[in-house]
C-alpha cells in the first residue's frame, strides 16, 4: 500500500478542452442547406409569372399535371383549377417558366388542345393518350398581362403565320362559315377565321386570313364573292345549274379576283362580299332611283328580283309587287316598285351637272324622257318559265303622261303589254261580231225569198219561158248550119283515121306474127333452147364419164 | 375445169379443150352415128277426109327420152344409152314432125296443122298426144305406148284413146331399130286417122278454117 497522502491522488478533475467553434460534421447539413437554398433559388428565379386563364370548362385540365405548351415544348404547368368569381367559368392558374415569360403578353391566346372532330378536320388526336394540354399562341406582343380569357376553339390562324387578315362585309353569312376556304382561281389561299357577331343593323364583319405569298394578290380593286357549291337558279334569264368543288359544296367558300389596277391591299382592309360573280357590277352602283308603276291586267310571272330592262339590257331590279285595294272606289291596283340604276347607262354628250349624278338631276332627266314617251311595260322574259320583266322603252305614239311623284317614289306611267293589247283586240273583234245586225239580215233574206215566190207565181215567168223556147229553136237552127259546114271537117278526120290504120299495119308488119322480128325472136329462143340442151347433155355425159375429157369416149376407139 | 352447167358461155371452150386433150392424150374417139326417123306412110292420093282441120298439139314426151342417145331398155326397169348412136335432132320434135307428116299423107296436107302456129289458124279438131314409152328392148322389140285425146274447137273432149304398138328389129342394129320406130309412128298415125271420122261426127258442124283476128 502506498502513502495514503501521497498515495491519495488528487481527485481527477475533468479539464475541458477548449471547444472548437465549428465541427466538421456540421458541414454536411450546411452543404445540404446551401444546396437546398441554391436549388430553391434557382427554382424560384427560373419561375416565370403566374397567369390566370379563364375557360368555360375545365374538361381535361388537372392541377399539377396539365402543361402549358408552345410549339410542343412545355413552358408552364397548371397550378390550380378553381371556379371563377362569376361561378360560370373556370380559372386556371398557370405557372409559366421564366424563359417563356417573354411569350406572354396582352395579345397572347390560350386554348385547350383536346380531341376535336368537325369543321372539316380532326385535330388533337395525340391528346387521347397524353391527355389535354393548354397551347399558347404568343401573339404580336405588347404589354405584360396575367389574366386572359381562353379560346374555346383553336384559332384558325396562329399569330406567327405569314399572311394578312382582311375583312368582308355582307348582309348575311350565307353559305360561308368559319373555316370556309378562300379561293383564288381555284387555289385555296386562306380561310375565314372569324365572324364578328352583328352588333347593330350594319353588315356582318367576316374576318379572313390570306396566307403568304397569296396575300399580295389581294388588291384594293379586288372583289370577293361567295362560291356556291351548287348553283341552281331559275330567273327571267333562264335556268342555270352548276356544281363547284366538293369542299366548297360542303363548307361554302369565298372567291376573290385581282383585276388590273389597284395596289396591294393593306392589312385589315374591308371588302364587300357579293352573292356571286354576276352581282359584281352592283358594287359600282351607288345610285338607285326607286320607281313605282301601276300595270293594267295580270302581273303573273313578275317576281321580286326580276330585271328591269331597256331594250333587253338590264338597268334595274323589281323590288316589290303589291296588291292595293281602294276601299272608297272598290278598285284593285297593283303597284310594282322597282329600282333603276342610272350608272349602268353610259352618258354621251353630258355636261358636268348631269354627270355629277345628283339625285335631282337623274329625276329631271327621267321626267324629260317620260315626256318624250318613256313608258313601263310588262314583257315576257322567258317563254318557258313564263317569267316577266319590266321593260322600259320610248313609245313614240304613247298617250301623253307625266312622271308623277308618290311619297318618295316617282310614278312611271305604263302602257299595256303586248299580250294585253292582243287580248283587247280580240275582245274588240268579238264585240263587233256580236254587234252585226244578224236579225235584220234574216228579215231581208226572208223578204227576198217572198219576192222570188211572187215572181214565180206571176204570168211573167210563163212569157219568159216562151221566149226561152224560141231561143232554143233558133239555137237548133244554128246547130244545123254548123253541121253542114262541118262535113269537110269530118272528111278530113276520115283521112286521118286511114293514115292511122296504115301506121298500125306498118307496126303489124314489124311486130306481127309474120314479121322478120318475130321470126328472128323465135329462132333466137330456139337457139337458146338448143344451147341449153347441149350443155345439159355434155354435163350429163361428163358426169357419167369424167375421164372422157382425157381419154375420149370409152369403148368406141378404133 | 369449170362446170359447164353453170357457165354456158364456156361450152365451146370446154369442147375445144376437151378435143385438144382427146387428140393430145388419147388419140381419137370413134365417130358418132346419127339417125333420123322418116314418115313411113305412102302418100294416099285418093283420100276423102271427113275432117276440116286437124291441129296437133306439142307432143308430150317422157323425160328419159329427152336426150340425144338412143335409149335401150335392157330390163323392164334398166336403161342403157348408146353413146355412138344418137338422134340427129331432138326426139320429141322429130316424133311430132313425123307424126304430122304421116297424118298429112293420110288426110291431105291442107287438113293438118301444128298448134300453136304463127298463121293464126284455128283447127276444128285438136289432137293432144302423150307418149308414155318409146324405146327398144335388148331383144329388138320396139314399144310405142301413147295416150291421146281429141278436142273440138271449144275445148270439149271428143274421145280418149290408148295405143300400144310394137315393132320388131334386129338387136344392136340401130338402123333397123330406127326404121322400126318410124313404122311404129306410122301405125300410130293410122290409128289416129281411123278414129278421126268418129271425132268429127262427135264435134258436129264446126267452123271452117278461119283467120283469127
Please give a handful of descriptors for the protein shown.
heterodimer, A: 558 residues, alpha+beta, eight-stranded mixed β-sheet, seven-stranded mixed β-sheet, 11 helices, 28 strands, 31% helix, elongated, B: 213 residues, alpha/beta, Rossmann fold, 2 domains, 3 helices, 28% strand, disordered N terminus, disordered C terminus
Structure report:
- The complex is a heterodimer of chains A (558) and B (213).
- Chain A is α+β, with helices and mostly antiparallel strands and 558 residues long.
- Chain A has helices at residues 4-7, 27-46, 127-130, 246-251, 352-355, 359-371, 418-435, 438-457, 459-511, 516-544, 548-551, and strands at residues 47-55, 67-70, 73-83, 90-97, 109-113, 116-118, 121-123, 133-137, 147-149, 163-170, 181-184, 187-196, 204-211, 224-227, 230-235, 238-243, 253-256, 270-274, 289-294, 307-310, 313-321, 324-326, 331-333, 335-340, 374-380, 388-394, 404-406, 409-411.
- Chain B has 2 domains: 1-30, no CATH class; 32-203, ABC-type transport auxiliary lipoprotein component (Rossmann fold, 3-Layer(aba) Sandwich).
- In chain B, a hairpin with a 5-residue loop joins strand 3 (69-73) and strand 4.
- Chain B is globular, with a radius of gyration of 21 Å.
- Classes of the chains: A alpha+beta (558), B alpha/beta (213).
- Chains A and B meet through helix 10 and helix 11 of A and helix 1 of B.
Amino acid at each position: 500500500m502506498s502513502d495514503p497522502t501521497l498515495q491519495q491522488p488528487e481527485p481527477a478533475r475533468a479539464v475541458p478542452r477548449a471547444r472548437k467553434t465549428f465541427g466538421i460534421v456540421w458541414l454536411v447539413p450546411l452543404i445540404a442547406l446551401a444546396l437546398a437554398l441554391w436549388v430553391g433559388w434557382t427554382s424560384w428565379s427560373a419561375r416565370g409569372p403566374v397567369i390566370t386563364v379563364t375557360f368555360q370548362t375545365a374538361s381535361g385540365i388537372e392541377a399539377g399535371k396539365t402543361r402549358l405548351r408552345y410549339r410542343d415544348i412545355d413552358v408552364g404547368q397548371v397550378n390550380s383549377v378553381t371556379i371563377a368569381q362569376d361561378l360560370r367559368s373556370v380559372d386556371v392558374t398557370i405557372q409559366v417558366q421564366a424563359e417563356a415569360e417573354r411569350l406572354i403578353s396582352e395579345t397572347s391566346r390560350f386554348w385547350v388542345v383536346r380531341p376535336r372532330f368537325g369543321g372539316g378536320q380532326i385535330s388533337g388526336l395525340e391528346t387521347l393518350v397524353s391527355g389535354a394540354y393548354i397551347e399558347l399562341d404568343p401573339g404580336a406582343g405588347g404589354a405584360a398581362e396575367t389574366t386572359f380569357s381562353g379560346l374555346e376553339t383553336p384559332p384558325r390562324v396562329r399569330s406567327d403565320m405569314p399572311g394578312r387578315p382582311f375583312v368582308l362585309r355582307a348582309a348575311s353569312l350565307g353559305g360561308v362559315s368559319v373555316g370556309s376556304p378562300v379561293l383564288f382561281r381555284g387555289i385555296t389561299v386562306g380561310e375565314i377565321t372569324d365572324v364578328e357577331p352583328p352588333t347593330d343593323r350594319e353588315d356582318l364583319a367576316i374576318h379572313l386570313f390570306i396566307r403568304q405569298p397569296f396575300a399580295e394578290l389581294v388588291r384594293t380593286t379586288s372583289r370577293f364573292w361567295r362560291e356556291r357549291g351548287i348553283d341552281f337558279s331559275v330567273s327571267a334569264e333562264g335556268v342555270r345549274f352548276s356544281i363547284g368543288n366538293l369542299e366548297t359544296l360542303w363548307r361554302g367558300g369565298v372567291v376573290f379576283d385581282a383585276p388590273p389596277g389597284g395596289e396591294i391591299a393593306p392589312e385589315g382592309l374591308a371588302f364587300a362580299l357579293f352573292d356571286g360573280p354576276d352581282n359584281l357590277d352592283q358594287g359600282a352602283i351607288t345610285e338607285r332611283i326607286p320607281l313605282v308603276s301601276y300595270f293594267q291586267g295580270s302581273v303573273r310571272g313578275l317576281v321580286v328580283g326580276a330585271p328591269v330592262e331597256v331594250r333587253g339590257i338590264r338597268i334595274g331590279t323589281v323590288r316589290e309587287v303589291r296588291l292595293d285595294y281602294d276601299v272608297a272606289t272598290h278598285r284593285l291596283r297593283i303597284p310594282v316598285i322597282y329600282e333603276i340604276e342610272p350608272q349602268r347607262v353610259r352618258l354621251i354628250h353630258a355636261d358636268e351637272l348631269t354627270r355629277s349624278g345628283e339625285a335631282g338631276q337623274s329625276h329631271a332627266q327621267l321626267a324629260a324622257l317620260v315626256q318624250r314617251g318613256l313608258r313601263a311595260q310588262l314583257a315576257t322574259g322567258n317563254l318557258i318559265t313564263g317569267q316577266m320583266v319590266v321593260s322600259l322603252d320610248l313609245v313614240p305614239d304613247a298617250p301623253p303622261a307625266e312622271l308623277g311623284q308618290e311619297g318618295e317614289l316617282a310614278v312611271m306611267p305604263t302602257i299595256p303589254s303586248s299580250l294585253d293589247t292582243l287580248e283587247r283586240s280580240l275582245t274588240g273583234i268579238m264585240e263587233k261580231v256580236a254587234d252585226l245586225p244578224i236579225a235584220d239580215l234574216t228579215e231581208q233574206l226572208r223578204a227576198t225569198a217572198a219576192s222570188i215566190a211572187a215572181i214565180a207565181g206571176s204570168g211573167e215567168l210563163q212569157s219568159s219561158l216562151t221566149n226561152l223556147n224560141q231561143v232554143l229553136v233558133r239555137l237548133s237552127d244554128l246547130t244545123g248550119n254548123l253541121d253542114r259546114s262541118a262535113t269537110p271537117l269530118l272528111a278530113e278526120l276520115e283521112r286521118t283515121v286511114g293514115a292511122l290504120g296504115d301506121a298500125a299495119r306498118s307496126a303489124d308488119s314489124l311486130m306481127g306474127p309474120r314479121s322478120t322480128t318475130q321470126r328472128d325472136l323465135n329462132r333466137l329462143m330456139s337457139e337458146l333452147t338448143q344451147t341449153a340442151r347441149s350443155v345439159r347433155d355434155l354435163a350429163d355425159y361428163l358426169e357419167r364419164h369424167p375421164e372422157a375429157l382425157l381419154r375420149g369416149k370409152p369403148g368406141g376407139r378404133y | 375445169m369449170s362446170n359447164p352447167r353453170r357457165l354456158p358461155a364456156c361450152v365451146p371452150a370446154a369442147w375445144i379443150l376437151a378435143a385438144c386433150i382427146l387428140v393430145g392424150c388419147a388419140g381419137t374417139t370413134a365417130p358418132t352415128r346419127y339417125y333420123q326417123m322418116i314418115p313411113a306412110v305412102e302418100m294416099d292420093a285418093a283420100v276423102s277426109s271427113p275432117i276440116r282441120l286437124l291441129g296437133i298439139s306439142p307432143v308430150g314426151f317422157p323425160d328419159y327420152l329427152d336426150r340425144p342417145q338412143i335409149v335401150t331398155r335392157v330390163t323392164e326397169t334398166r336403161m342403157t344409152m348408146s353413146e355412138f348412136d344418137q338422134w340427129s335432132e331432138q326426139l320429141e320434135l322429130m316424133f311430132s314432125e313425123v307424126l304430122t307428116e304421116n297424118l298429112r299423107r293420110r288426110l291431105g296436107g291442107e287438113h293438118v296443122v301444128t298448134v300453136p302456129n304463127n298463121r293464126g289458124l284455128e283447127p276444128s279438131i285438136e289432137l293432144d298426144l302423150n307418149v308414155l314409152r318409146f324405146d327398144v328392148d335388148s331383144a329388138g322389140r320396139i314399144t310405142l305406148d301413147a295416150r291421146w285425146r281429141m278436142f273440138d274447137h271449144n275445148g270439149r273432149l271428143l274421145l280418149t284413146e290408148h295405143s300400144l304398138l310394137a315393132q320388131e328389129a334386129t338387136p344392136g342394129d340401130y338402123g333397123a331399130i330406127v326404121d322400126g320406130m318410124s313404122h311404129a309412128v306410122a301405125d300410130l298415125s293410122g290409128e289416129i286417122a281411123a278414129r278421126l271420122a268418129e271425132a268429127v261426127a262427135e264435134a258436129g258442124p264446126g267452123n271452117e278454117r278461119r283467120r283469127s283476128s
